[in-house]
Write a structure and sequence with these properties.
By secondary structure, the chain is α+β, with helices and mostly antiparallel strands. The chain has one domain. It is 18% helix and 50% strand. The chain has 1 helix and 7 strands. The strands form 2 sheets. The protein has a 4-stranded antiparallel sheet with strand order 3-4-5-7, with no helix packed on it. The chain has a 3-stranded antiparallel sheet with strand order 2-1-6, with no helix packed on it. The protein is flat, with a radius of gyration of 18 Å.
């Protein structure tokens, strides 16, 4: 089983999911528009067997000077995974709620454009 070690601010966060069907994702985004700058770093995973999303690290900086050293290492089941800072269990009610939110947003956009 492969995993990711993320070293940031002298802390090591390890993402390993004990599952046969999983994904790990590490996203670094820098967005600059006019006088505003945003930097986001998100390290998360998805366990398909358990149908849940795990967040290991989330940090966002707005308009700050950011000077961080980030090291990423692919690992082969080295040790134990870090405890996720957030878990989202997907189930039928969660999926229905997300569909309803999407429907309402689309309905609002269509009304604004005078299409319904």
């Amino acid at each position: 089983m492969k995993g990711i070690n993320l070293e940031i601010d002298q802390s090591i966060i390890t993402g390993i999911i004990d599952s046969n069907n999983y994904s790990l994702s590490l996203s670094l985004m820098i967005r600059h528009s006019k006088d505003e700058e945003q930097v986001s770093l998100v390290f998360s995973g998805y366990d398909k067997d358990e149908d849940k999303q795990l967040e290991y690290y989330v940090d966002r900086y707005f308009g700050e000077k950011v000077n961080k050293e980030i090291k990423i290492k692919l690992v082969e089941n080295e040790g134990k995974a870090s405890i996720p800072v957030k878990e989202v269990q997907f189930d039928e009610s969660f999926n229905n709620e997300m569909l309803l939110r999407s429907y309402r947003k689309l309905e609002e956009q269509l009304k604004t454009k005078g299409l319904i």
